[in-house]
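User: My collaborator and I are trying to settle a disagreement about how two of our proteins should look. Neither of us wants to argue from intuition anymore, so we agreed to look at predicted structures for both before our next call. Could you fold the first one, then the second, and keep them clearly separated?

Assistant: That sounds like a sensible way to settle it. I'll keep them separate. The first protein:
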Amino acid sequence: MTLAAHTQYSLLALAALTVAVGCRNLDDFSSKPGDAYCGQLLSQPEFQDGFLPLGSPPDLELELRLDISKLTSEPGILRSNDATTGLCASTSGALFQDAPLRAIPAVDHDVLSTLTFGEGHEHDFFAWVDSSCQGTMLAVVSLLKNQQVEIRLFKPARLPPSNAPPDQQPGFAMFHFYVQKGGCGF
């Protein structure tokens, strides 16, 4: 095969892949007016590091309102239910207070944008989200084929001393979401 034929074949294969991925209709993931995705922190300790005050039960919940038409700008809004009991309760209220998910456009031009997290995932994307007291976090959002959503939150922090409280520790948390008519109630 000549170099020109190989190049043309490669471009056709890339175009076919782009069309196949680009044709997925993700619009059904957008929250309907008044509805929201409601998600609970997974109860396994390894999925809640740095997100709960010491001695707290794993009762952190998030409300997510998605707008897929804004997937490349601000695809969603996060709120949390921990205004009186969470890491930010003494300073600013809830961990997330109508915090916009902010797309990371540079990732769309990187191989990371093609990353998938296994079978059952329709689309995965990366976003920034600002906590009211814990700084900016990385959110990995997974839109699942069963119309549910997962979010993994990464909270960066400097290397803390071994006895640092959770609000000074880096963190990782995972949430599973389902659609709730009328919102999450917090």
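The second protein, kept apart from the first:
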Amino acid sequence: MSVEFTEATHYGAGMRRTSFAAMHCSMARSLEVMGDWWTPLILRDLHLGLARFDELAEDLGISRNLLTTRLAALVERGLVERRRYSERPPRHTYHLTEAGRDLVPVLTALTAWGDRWLAPKQGPPLRLQHRTCGKFFTPTVACSRCGEAVSAEDVVAHGGPGGRTGPGTRLVAKVLRNRQHAGATRRATRAAKADGAPLGL
């Protein structure tokens, strides 16, 4: 099941919010799919095993109309699937799709940030256990190549093949192009110095 974008998303009672679907930015397009503040909490509860509508409504304290709207949007976007468990009356359980499950590490990383900066005085509300090793852990973002934890200082962004200059990335694209050009110039300068060639300055 694929994740789908919509050009305009209904938000609240008759209100619309700006659509990020046309932006050439993976973060913006991810936020378009996530929708609003309720979405991560709904996805969290589904991952924790609250699969029925009444369970979600009670746990979150969200109105039933709003929850209906949010679940329908998540199903439409391919993050959640409905499974009927009763015909009369018709009732469903809700489950994360592959795309929805792929968001769980993102949600745990966000939770870890909240545990560090916003946790209650008593401590983190949840403890996370790694099923594979059985240990309790703090989620971190790690490099997929070397496995080391990644911080803001460790990340250098470069333009990718899908990058475009446009709404939401107008200056970012220019900054990345300039950075790549400067990096290429520095590499050429170092190579010339190593070869003993004149730099032409």
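Some points you might bring to the call about the second protein. The chain has two domains: 9-118, 157-196. Helices lie at 26-34, 38-48, 53-60, 64-76, 98-102, 104-117, 170-195.
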